Amino acid sequence: MALGGPKPRTLLVALLLQLRQVVTADRLVDLIWDESPPQSAAALVHTYVSSLRRVAGQALVTRAPGYLLDVEYSDIDEFTRQVSLARQAERDDDPATAFRHYERGLELWRGPALHGIEANFARGHALALEESRLSAQEGLGRCELAQSRFEDAIGRLSALAHSHPAREDTRLLLMNALYRAGRQADALAVYREARTYLLDELGIEPGEKLQTLHRQLLAGTLEIPLLAAAPARNAVVPHHLPPDISDFTGRQDALAQVLAVAAAPANTTSTPTVVISGFGGAGKSALAVRAAHLLRRDYPDGQLFADLRGSERDLRSHEVVGRFLGLLGVLGKDQPDGIDERVELYRRLVADRKLVIVLDNARNERQVRSLLPGNPNCFVIITSRSRLTGLEGADPVELGLLEPEVSAEMLSRIAGEQRVKAEPESARHIVELCGGVPLALRAAAAKLLARPHWPLRTLAKRLSDERRRLDELTVGDLAIRSSLRLNHADLDDLHRTAFHLLAVLDMPDFGAWVAAPLLLVDLDEAEDVVEHLVELRLLDVAGVDHIGRVRYRFHDLVQLFGAEQAPLDESVTTAVGRLLATWVTLVEAGSKRLPRVTLGLRPRPGVEEEVDPRLVEEVEENPMGWLHSETSAVVRVVERAHDLGADEITTTLITSLLSSSFSARNEFDGWQRTHDVALRAVRAQGNTAAEAVVLAGLGQLRYEQDDFDAALTNFQQAADRAELVGDDATLAVALVGLGTVYRDLASFDLARSALKRAVLLGDDEIVAAAEYGLGAIDRDLGDLATAETALERSLSLYRKLEDQRGTALALRGLSLCQRASGKFLEAVESSREAEALLRVAGDELGAVYAVQSSVKASLRAGLFEGLDDLLAECAEVCERQRDRFGLALTTRTRGELSLTLGRPDAAALLSEALELWTELGAPLWRARTMRDLAAATSDAETWTAALELFRSLGVREATELEGMTAAEWLSSTRLS
């Protein structure tokens, strides 16, 4: 062919070596220019293709994303076939036929293999072809020898040995031919020449076979014929497996499963079959090929392999069976046209053979049924992303993600052990970012091999950028993207939309129901859609949640791919808005059945969304379990909704509704994240009213975190903005927050002013909370009668509102007044009643405070049994829920108990509590703990400091302790 230069010829060779397969344009660029292409490479490839098409005509097909050469056989294929037939004839002890096939194969040669093609990829193929040619020439000599044509064999083999002096098989045949022709001296001379050459040029002795023949010639013990024929067979033996990979890592259990099925006793008439399933890039094909290579001895009649999935379309059964027939020695012209007849011939040919058949990348059961041999002698390995559970009798082998240790081993074996050992942290980071996906690890390692000057930290840093991660995991034809595109192409419009939306939202896990509002389908169809994505390995099952529903999640790389493919248009923000609105309804339904820890905040207008009653029933049946399951997903969707430009009112509303459930569990991270998003959203829209609501929520968060300064700032900002827009409801909430924080800081005048103003503005819920705060102030200041009156009003309002937590809070407040009045047993009963209500309401942390007050009252009443255990349980809950105020309170109470009982650890516990109060900035509690510590240590200086602090705060203890010493106070046992 006159193609005009080496580059067009290189293009032709690249297509010939991958006959009937699409070679991408990018791959052709790499092959032609050895990965150092000019800027105009793509245009030049197009020019070369045009030149080649003038010669090849319609056989050169353009098929996205590249080109394929669609011819039935090349000279390379025909040469390979003739050599295979020749070797089969040798095994059948038919040297004359074998000679003819070898000759026909060698007649196809016109010169050196791939002559004039200098590209790197061609060199390796040229060497392999040249080796096959030499082997065929040796085959001719072997056939001549078998037919006693000694002189012909000597002439042929002498020339071959002269031109290729290092080939010991040629020397072996030549020595045998000379000996059998009666020329023993010449045969020995050939050995001496071979030994001299090998020692001089390579520094090695001849191989064992050559040395053995030499010894036999010298000893006269050579048996004729020396060469034993291969076991006779009546058909071509195909060896059509892809090469095994030398760095195969892990999957030992899965490999053992496959081999065990192959080794099982054949006690049935069915074909032993395994289906290796797993996500794209899991290493299914590598495992199948490894197993097939290991089984070659057990299945001596050959191995067949077919990749059922092309780059553009699935291979039809008609094509695959045709290829198998060709490999089994049936020429294309001799093959039946109909699929049924082809399958019949195929099964007849393999009926009595022991073959391994690998069917790679099967889409479904129908695609492989006609390719099954139908006899128990063969062994079939199928790989698929689906489990193919409809394939009767097949043994499943499931591949999951690689463990971190195996992933690290794989990276080390490919990229280099010393290189990985030199940067263990960066290696671990790369392994983590590849997520246990073998294809991703192989691509990362290949990139390191391609850039030997890169430190591992460079690749780790580049992989850390989520926007570039899939790009970084692309090296040549190793690409996570390409693997995922196969499954993506299988999706219809509905499933593709679901995949895109779920990937864009990037939830840590989720229930199938979220697809219903996203897609505007019912719950049953939503579950079917999500399960189909699981079947296609685009989603994983994460487990079962607290209310018994299946949760799903993406692998990180799949999520990045799905988000990358999604169109970020108005349809996405609309769908996300529907999901948020549904969550608003469900969160509100759950919040109504949970203890309200924070005052209600709700921006207006509200959001109305029709929700399936079954979802509402799930929430109402177990609100705490539902919120525990859904919170992380809600938080992430709130963040993504803001990123996507969803309605800020919906974002703010769900943020406010979540506050109480966050507070009940001290779940500060989600609380903080949702409020940060909501604050950015409302400020970007200039919505002052919504900003006031969010700031009030942040104030509540900061108060629960015991960050009093930040809480004051947020509450004051909320109050200012609410007052500016005339939102009395939010203003009242902010005022109660201010009053509560000021009370804890012992700024009683400011606290009283804020709370009294809240009473004038708020509804019953606000008034109940404000009255509680006012009662607590009066109690701290020593006006116990006024305090009890305010707390009774609070209790009455909470009971009217049917607010169990508020009722319990008021009861605990009354118990503190009762204890201060010396009514210890009444205080114990009030605290225990409060605890019972809080347990029923599911408020674990609130119950801890009720238990603490019950312990204090019991201590004063002289009821010490079991108090240590109760306080230990309280401390554990406070630590788990990160409640520093509660931990300080519990630690101080433990110190008081030890002080009362005269135990030596009292001072240490009280000192620990004092440090906690100092960190919190709570002066009244610091003063009370200093008083207790002075009594425990008989430290007059600490006692004096405590009295001065009480006087500066104007609290009741200043009057109660006037003129007393620490010892006198301790003997009175009126601990506050």
Largest sheet, strands/sense/barrel: 5 strands, parallel
Q: Cα distance, first to last residue?
A: 104 Å
- The parts where pLDDT drops under 50 for at least 5 residues are 225-235
Question: How would you describe the shape?
Answer: elongated
Helix content: 55-70%
| Radius of gyration, CA atoms, in whole angstroms | 41 Å
> Count of DSSP helices?
47
Mean pLDDT, rounded to whole units? Answer: 86
Structural class: mainly alpha
List how many beta strands DSSP finds.
13
| Strand order in space, largest sheet | 5-6-7-4-8
In what range is the share of β-strand residues? 5-15%
Helix and strand arrangement:
Layout: H1 6-16, E1 23-24, H2 25-33, H3 41-56, E2 60-63, E3 66-69, H4 75-91, H5 95-107, H6 120-146, H7 150-163, H8 168-180, H9 184-202, H10 208-219, H11 252-263, E4 273-278, H12 284-294, E5 303-307, H13 317-327, H14 339-349, E6 356-362, H15 365-369, E7 379-384, E8 395-399, H16 404-415, H17 417-422, H18 424-434, H19 438-450, H20 456-464, H21 469-472, E9 474-475, E10 478-479, H22 480-488, H23 493-505, E11 510-511, H24 515-519, H25 523-535, E12 540-544, E13 550-553, H26 556-565, H27 570-591, H28 613-621, H29 623-644, H30 648-664, H31 668-685, H32 688-704, H33 708-725, H34 728-744, H35 748-761, H36 764-781, H37 784-800, H38 804-820, H39 824-841, H40 844-861, H41 867-880, H42 884-901, H43 906-920, H44 923-937, H45 940-953, H46 956-960, H47 966-972
Helix pairs in contact: 1-3, 4-5, 4-6, 5-6, 6-7, 6-8, 7-8, 8-9, 8-10, 9-10, 11-12, 13-14, 16-18, 16-19, 18-20, 23-25, 23-26, 27-28, 27-29, 27-30, 28-29, 29-30, 29-31, 30-31, 30-32, 31-32, 32-33, 32-34, 33-34, 34-35, 34-36, 35-36, 36-37, 36-38, 37-38, 38-39, 38-40, 39-40, 40-41, 40-42, ...
